[in-house]
Write a structure and sequence with these properties.
Length: 367
């Protein structure tokens, strides 16, 4: 298959990483992949650095010049393109409208990475129900949102962004702490994500401030626009001796094994956060909020502890529970690890997406 990904602008979070991870995996399986996106999208440079084929196209806005530019590319390459996978609203609309003018429309698969409700108007209903051959969501809860605008469940598939267990895997805790510069004898909490308000770092800091034990410390791994606000909050809460702002780390897989507990305090509109999957793959006890599709991976009291969003008290209680109960920590870590290997690996994701693309191509050719 020749798979073409389009993206208007997916920011710096999990969306471009999903596209790159999936694309590299598809190439390893013998498929051809091309990425169409504007140069301003973070995906552009990230994909080029990963060695992927990137074509610069203006897709950020729904307007006539952008539509014509995309149509020209699709028309010139239609003989070799098998399926288009769009990732944002603007590029989905541009592909859908371009398809109306092509003698051989390209099957369009839309991946929805966020958990926001789609608009329920005539345009959105046409786009999702008619123009798109299939809808992929990154969590089961997101999939069921599509029924609100009349998309049949059989026209949707949940495919979480699978993690590569060859990269994220269990490792020696003390060796990891030494490598990351974390104290050997303290109890380390860890959160790995982009620093923006909806990721919930502020709520986690409130929860930590309610736990008086100075040996319970927190490492925040990641970078983003919310860093300064978080640093100010750390000072305000008197946590300067207990919180490490580690910044961006090119190899987060080295950090997870150093933690006693990994957390995802998000109240963001997302699928299944990559940090959650990475902590499960590292066989680390995980506490997460029920944001987006997180419950697909963190099943409360089975693969981790699941708490409500924006609830510092619930986060505090969950941390204290696992801090006091090493046996429960180990049990949840092992069960989460086993569940991930069975359901949420990169290979699981690639096989599911291959089926979605193949089915969309087959339905299109039978018309």
């Amino acid at each position: 298959m020749h798979i073409v990904h389009t993206e208007a602008d997916g920011g710096k979070g999990g969306q471009p990483l999903r596209i790159i991870n999936e694309s590299l995996g598809m190439i390893q399986r013998g498929h051809q992949v091309t990425i169409l996106c504007p140069e301003s999208a973070p995906l552009h440079a990230l994909a080029q650095n990963a060695g992927l084929t990137v074509v610069t196209l203006p897709l950020r806005r729904k307007n006539v010049p952008n539509l014509l530019a995309l149509r020209r590319w699709l028309q010139a390459n239609r003989q070799t393109v098998d399926v288009v996978n769009s990732h944002n609203s603007a590029d989905t609309w541009l592909v859908a409208l371009a398809n109306l003018t092509l003698s051989r429309p390209v099957p369009l698969v839309r991946t929805r990475h966020a958990s926001g409700l789609p608009r329920n108007n005539a345009g959105s209903r046409w786009l999702f129900r008619t123009a798109c051959a299939h809808i992929v969501t990154t969590g089961e809860a997101l999939r069921h949102q599509m029924t609100a605008i009349g998309v049949p469940l059989e026209q949707t598939t949940s495919v979480p962004s699978g993690v590569d267990p060859a990269r994220f895997h269990p490792a020696d805790k003390q060796a990891a702490r030494q490598q990351c510069g974390l104290s050997a004898d303290d109890f380390w909490l860890g959160v790995v994500s982009h620093l923006r308000p909806n990721k919930g770092h502020g709520v986690l800091l409130e929860a930590l401030a309610q736990i008086p034990d100075p040996t319970i410390k927190l490492a925040i791994v990641g970078e983003g626009p919310h860093r300064t606000a978080l640093e100010q909050e750390i000072v305000r809460l008197g946590l300067t001796d207990r919180v490490l702002m580690a910044g961006h780390q090119a190899a987060p897989e080295k950090w997870f094994p150093a933690f006693d507990i990994a957390l995802s305090p998000s109240h963001d509109m997302e699928g299944v956060p990559q940090g959650v999957l990475q902590s499960l793959a590292s066989r680390i006890a995980t506490i997460a909020t029920d944001a987006g599709g997180t419950a697909d991976a963190v099943i409360d009291r089975q693969t981790g502890l699941l708490v409500g969003q924006r609830d510092a008290g619930a986060l505090r209680d969950a941390i204290v529970t696992l801090h006091k109960d090493a046996a429960l920590r180990d049990q949840l870590a092992q069960q989460g690890y086993d569940y991930l290997l069975a359901h949420l690996t990169r290979d699981c994701m690639l096989s599911a997406m291959e089926k979605v693309f193949s089915d969309a191509i087959q339905r299109n050719s039978s018309r």
